[in-house]
Amino acid sequence: xxxxxxxxxxxxxxxxxxxxxxxxxxxxxxxxxxxxxxxxxxxxxxxxxxxxxxxxxxxxxxxxxxxxxxxxxxxxxxxxxxxxxxxxxxxxxxxxxx
Length: 98
Known about the structure:
It is a single chain. With 98 residues, the protein is of the alpha+beta class. It has one domain (3-96): Beta Polymerase, domain 2. The protein has four helices and four strands. The chain has a four-stranded mixed sheet with strand order 3-2-1-4, with helices on both faces. Strand 2 (42-48), helix 3 and strand 3 form a beta-alpha-beta unit. The chain is globular and about 35 Å long.
């Protein structure tokens, strides 16, 4: 999966993401830097609508959907879940996808 493919796929599936109350979705990591290799996962940062009620199972369903759409493993995170030592760099390299 390269950056262009990931961005195109996520953008094309915006309606499916809306069902999960996704406000914004970003890619980061090797795919965002266009340094991925075969077998690389896609690191995704998600922001939900302010009134969204997202539990563990809903989060897992979103991660599974993203994995199916992108046809690879997905690491899904929210801003609040990012490790404080990595957060600044992740937010700098994050690319808005949808």
